[in-house]
């Protein structure tokens, strides 16, 4: 389904949704498949591959799957199971976090 408008889902949908605007999955809603939107709000259940500039998982929401976004907001009591990545990040902007080996961290005296 390709849309150029906001969409509110409060039932069951299986398939692909692509919207240039916002998609909201209501408390009684469940979407299984691929979702692409500018803004995604999940109050119900979303399973699959999700991509949006901003994704919000509300208190009653649950996401299971792969998420790609520039902003991911998870409210208390919301559930997220899966993998998250930053949308459109360039290879040159990726950084690696190096964790020191055990025993190699020096703490100031008196701590």
Q: Notable features of this structure?
A:
111 residues; mainly beta; 8-stranded parallel sheet; globular
3D structure, described in words:
- The structure is a single chain.
- The protein is an all-beta fold and 111 residues long.
- The chain has one domain.
- The protein has no helices and eight strands.
- It has strands at residues 2-3, 7-9, 12-19, 22-25, 30-42, 45-57, 62-74, 79-86.
- Strands 1, 2, 3, 4, 5, 6, 7 and 8 form an eight-stranded parallel β-sheet that branches.
- The model has no long low-confidence stretch (mean pLDDT 88).
From the alpha carbons, calculate the radius of gyration and give it in angstroms.
Answer: 18 Å
Strand and helix order: EEEEEEEE
Q: Helicity, in percent?
A: under 10%
**How much strand content do the residues show?**
over 45%
Count of the domains: 1
Mean pLDDT: 88
Using the alpha-carbon principal axes, give the shape. Answer: globular
The low-pLDDT segments are none
Distance between the termini: 59 Å
Mind describing the biggest β-sheet? 8 strands, parallel
- The total strand number stands at 8
Q: Given the structure, what is the number of helices?
A: 0
Q: Structural class of the helix and strand makeup?
A: mainly beta
